[in-house]
Amino acid sequence: MPAMHSQAPDRVEQVRRFNRFYTRRIGVLQDHLLGSPFSLTEMRVLYELSSRGAARALDLRTELGLNAGYLSRVIATLESQGLLEKTPHPDDARSQLLALTALGRQTFQPFEEASRQEVLAMLSPLPEAQQQALVDAMDRIGQLLDTRPADVVLRAPQPGDMGLVVHKQARLYAQEYGWNQEFEALLADIVGKYLREFDPTSDRCWIADRQGEMVGSVFVVRHDATTAKLRMLYVDATARGLGVGRRLVEEAIGFARAAGYTRMVLWTNKVLLDAVRLYEKTGFSLVEEEHHHSFGSDQTSQVWARDLA
User: Fold this and answer.
1) CATH superfamily label, 153-307
2) What Å distances lie between residue 173 and 93, 180, 264, 289, CA to CA?
3) Does the pLDDT value for residue 64 go beyond 60?
4) What's the CA gap between 107 and 54, in Å, rounded?
5) What value, to the nearest 5°, has the Cα angle with vertex 215 and ends 192 and 195?
6) Overall pTM surpassing 0.70 (yes/no)
7) Is the pLDDT of residue 218 over 80?
8) pLDDT value at 127 more than 50
9) Contact, 9 vs 24, CB < 8 A?
10) What is the rounded CA–CA span in Å between residue 188 and residue 35?
11) For residues 239 and 283, is the Cβ–Cβ distance under 8 A?
């Protein structure tokens, strides 16, 4: 079990305070949602069936995180009201498909429209920029709390990404290792040089993107005529365990080979244990170590290298 950080109790109370505010704001605590005769769970079942067209009870249970017995009672209630019906599953004789009846669709539609109007009424008083900030924040909360794997794509950098690369790495290493502004200055120098001297035949950067959020990055630059240098590998804390770092490194190695390099080197610090393990797993060997004082603390820098032939 992870250790409880000193800030954790404050964070718990902040989350609880937000939950109390938001449930009050959207009316979840009312006995019936949107002035309807339905509970929140009943309305969610109606919504899922309206959106999907048809679904198995297992699909609904997984999506809504409900106890099987409780969901069965909800389904039975809606069925007794003539709002949903069961039909045999065409591909699985052991399962049944649930779908709204004509009465169910007719009954649900006004409440779907009322829900849309309620959200619109909540957003309308806010300026356009604040509306976008609000929905972006909601989307970010969903990404952080969703334990289901989301696809991560590797893409070329876009305007504005380089500043974000520096920002994210400087902030992460300050939080996790206490590194000071010297490290941020180093990052800015590396990125600035990359932008000024970029040559598409020998240099490349990849951004790891998950649903529009930068969760990783890496650079390859020319060290000399036969040697590529791997720089600034970064994986966001929210994307660890998804294989993002390995994908970035392997992509960099593949590009370096295709560009005609025969060797790749990198510089890191011994304290970055996850990165060091990754370099070992992807074929790099430690060739040099040096003790130094940088970024506000004592460090042991390392040079790693591997052949690309």
Assistant:
1) Gcn5-related N-acetyltransferase (GNAT) (3.40.630.30)
2) 55, 8, 24, 21
3) yes
4) 17
5) 15
6) no
7) yes
8) yes
9) no
10) 55
11) no
Tokens standing for 126? 């806010």
Residue 264 in tokens: 């790749």
Angle of helix 40-52 relative to helix 57-64, nearest 10 degrees, comes to 120
**SS3 track for the chain:** CCCCCCCHHHHHHHHHHHHHHHHHHCCCCCCCHHHCCCCHHHHHHHHHHHHHCCECHHHHHHHHCCCHHHHHHHHHHHHHCCCEEEEEECCEEEEEEEEECHHHHHHHHHHHHHHHHHHHHHHCCCCHHHHHHHHHHHHHHHHHHCCCCCCCEEECCCCCHHHHHHHHHHHHHHHHHCCCHHHHHHHHHHHHHHHHHCCCCCCEEEEEEECCEEEEEEEEEECCCCEEEEEEEEECHHHCCCCHHHHHHHHHHHHHHHCCCCEEEEEEECCCHHHHHHHHHCCCEEEEEEEEEECCEEEEEEEEEEECC
**Extents of the domains making up the chain:** 8-125, 153-307
What is the distance between the alpha carbons of residues 114 and 123, in angstroms, rounded to a whole number? 14
Q: How far are the Cα atoms of 13, 203, 303 from residue 192, in angstroms, in the given order?
A: 42, 13, 22
Q: What is the CATH number of domain 8-125?
A: 1.10.10.10
Total residues found in the chain within this entry: 309
Residue type, 6: S
Rounded Cα distance between 117 and 111, Å, is 10
